[in-house]
């Protein structure tokens, strides 16, 4: 599935499944994920979450706005987080 900033899709996982984000483009290595409900999806690392409990949550992916700048300009950047996309995740029993 491809995440885009202006749409939200739904993914179904079973308890114990993992979901890994693969990102490309200039900011690919700077992309991070976060879950609105860590009791349903637990972060394993910056690009991976594990379904730990039945329930639902929204998973967001984004990157620091400074990552969009050439390396020479990054030290002076004061930026926020750019949203790359969101997905609703429904976790069902395994």
In words, what does this structure look like?
The chain is built from no helices and 7 strands. Strand 4 (41-45) and strand 5 (48-51) form a beta hairpin. The protein has one domain: Immunoglobulin-like (Sandwich), CATH 2.60.40. The two termini are 22 Å apart. The protein has strands spanning 8-14, 18-20, 32-35, 41-45, 48-51, 55-64, 81-92. The protein is an all-beta fold. A 4-stranded mixed β-sheet has the order 1-7-6-3, with no helix packed on it. It has a 3-stranded antiparallel β-sheet with strand order 2-5-4, with no helix packed on it.
State the domain count.
1
**Widest β-sheet, arrangement of strands:** 1-7-6-3
> What's the average pLDDT?
82
CATH top level is Mainly Beta
How many strands? 7
Number of helices: 0
Structure keywords:
elongated, four-stranded mixed beta sheet, 7 strands, 94 residues, mainly beta, Immunoglobulin-like
How would you summarize the topology of this molecule?
Layout: E1 8-14, E2 18-20, E3 32-35, E4 41-45, E5 48-51, E6 55-64, E7 81-92
Short characterization:
This protein has strands spanning 8-14, 18-20, 32-35, 41-45, 48-51, 55-64, 81-92.
